[in-house]
């Protein structure tokens, strides 16, 4: 069983446009080169037990679907749910319990420029009061701004969990 120790970093997950941005030529539609593949979602367990999920560069005023894998947290058990928080920029779509941890899918709205951190809390469905904080961090670029060379912005390939590859994201 693979687990992340405190302070460890794991590449795991993917980012793609949310399903609401599917039409060619629609407001906010962006096309990225599918040949680029050097960006990954990074999941880090902090010393306090919380998790930091770094998703890299995003474009302002776009919605993204982000999927990442958190290692199994023994005190939460297998059945986990998102605690309802008043956050219009980060919405948990699903949490799937896997042998190696929890696959979390969420929708993220890049609403302003800068380094943004949005928070979610995952709790045990068993009602034992156990919960963990997960912070999703993104660097949101404004219109007309480009990501630094070599950053892989717009490529959003990653690995799901601990080494299993997932397909790249693309606008739908």
TrEMBL record:
Domain of life: Eukaryota
Family of the protein in this entry: Belongs to the ADISSP family.
PANTHER family referenced in this protein's UniProt entry, alphabetically: ADIPOSE-SECRETED SIGNALING PROTEIN
Name of the protein described by the UniProt record: Adipose-secreted signaling protein
